[in-house]
Amino acid sequence: MGLTIKEIIKLVDHLEMKLVAGEAGTDNEVTWTHVVDSDAISAFLQGKELVFTTGIGLNKDLPLIELVKDVYMDGASGIVINIGPYIDAIGQDVIDFADEKGFPVFEVPWHVHMAEIMRIICYEITRQQQNVIEITAALNNAFLCPMQEDLYVPTLMRKGYMSDGSYSVVMLDFYASHGEVSQDRHDTLVSQLSGHIRVNYKRILLCTQEKTIYLVVNNYSVEEERQVLNEIFVRICNWLRKSEFVIMTAGSDNISLSNIHKSYEQSVMMSKLAISGVIQGEITTNNSKLLFYTDIGVYRILLSLKDKEAMEEYVKETVYPLLEYDKIHGTDLSGELQCYIRHDCSLQDTADELMVHRNTINYKINKAADILNMDLTRLSNRFEVAMGFLVNKMLNL
């Protein structure tokens, strides 16, 4: 994890490093710096470096435009060009190429020491990496070992996150049509999100557990948190490719640091719910979902249930016969009944969603009622059935 070009611009604003082209690439991540004065040296780039050049190696066979193209093709995040005895100006061909590719190109006057710029950038990258390691360890301990406060409270307090503050945990998982996104793609999205949050927001921490991202939001009002998370959700959706989607779930807010694990656990369970199907209160963009704990209605009660035996017994007494019938006969009467209840018992609306004739729905609802031995015209019975399906979903998370 490094810095974005946008962060670097702010960091060295006092050193006359001027962006002249490729502004569209200022969200590019920089993981280190490297001096490149020839195409041979460019081949040693590992990717995501900010390249610096004096132009001392340029000649008629290697004009500046070719060096810029080489470092771009070798994965650099941008290039800083020292204007002086070897390069008197940046040509229009370089500017046009950089703008087309979204490849940031900077110029620095000769009297500014590039070594100082590189030192500042590398120091900040190292500091950020150490900070990420410490915060990730502390938050994971807060999530998983809440009783051992010495493993996380001192570290977070040193960084300005007080034990009596207000916290909430937000979970993000990225998916593609074939399953989880690749590790490289995940790392790219984490980098973009981390840089975006550092540049645009205060008091939001980010950590990861394998391919899951967690944000910890500190001392935001309910309205502020909702607005910020909506903004972040929209930005992420704009980054995603056509086949990708994100599930983003926000646990309860106004949680103390020592109880932050409760918001974490809620966000984890809500993510599983969101993957399993349509959930009350979800905000959707294509296949991506944003879900707030305060919006999920009865699921807030269900998430607090711990007695698995009691939950299983309730399912057995309500919807189990229908679930078993479907399993044996390869039908989906339970799904059709849930759709019917969700549409306030409208045969036509149910038929429209399932794309069948309303008489077909009428027959299937009557069949389900017979199997359950229930009068589904009674509100109390429909409530029990709906609750049975919800409890069954919770048991299968």
Q: Which labels suit this protein?
A:
about 400 residues; alpha/beta; elongated
Describe the structure.
The chain has 16 helices and 14 strands. Strand 4, helix 2 (39-42) and strand 5 form a beta-alpha-beta unit. Helix 11 crosses helix 16 (379-395), helix 13 (333-342) crosses helix 14 and helix 13 (333-342) crosses helix 15. By secondary structure, the chain is an alpha/beta fold. The mean pLDDT is 92. Strands 8, 9, 10, 11, 12, 13 and 14 form a 7-stranded mixed β-sheet that branches. Helix content is 50%, strand content 17%. The chain starts with a strand and ends with a helix.
Q: Rg to the nearest angstrom?
A: 28 Å
- Topology, number of strands: 14
The largest sheet, given as strand count, sense and whether it forms a barrel, is: 7 strands, mixed
Mean pLDDT level = 92
Shape descriptor: elongated
Provide the structure class.
Answer: alpha/beta
- Strand residue percentage: 15-25%
Order of helices and strands: EHEEEHEHEHEHHEEHEEHEHEEHHHHHHH
List segments where confidence is low: pLDDT < 50 over at least 5 consecutive residues.
Answer: none
Helix content: 40-55%
Terminal Cα span: 33 Å
Helical element count? 16
Oligomeric assembly: single chain
Helix/strand layout:
Layout: E1 3-4, H1 5-11, E2 18-21, E3 29-30, E4 32-35, H2 39-42, E5 49-53, H3 64-73, E6 78-83, H4 92-101, E7 105-109, H5 114-144, H6 153-158, E8 167-176, E9 179-180, H7 183-200, E10 204-209, E11 212-218, H8 222-239, E12 244-250, H9 260-276, E13 283-285, E14 288-292, H10 299-303, H11 308-318, H12 320-329, H13 333-342, H14 347-354, H15 358-372, H16 379-395
Parallel strand pairs: 4-5, 5-6, 6-7, 12-14
Antiparallel strand pairs: 1-3, 2-7, 8-9, 8-11, 8-12, 10-11, 13-14
Helix pairs in contact: 3-4, 11-16, 13-14, 13-15, 14-15
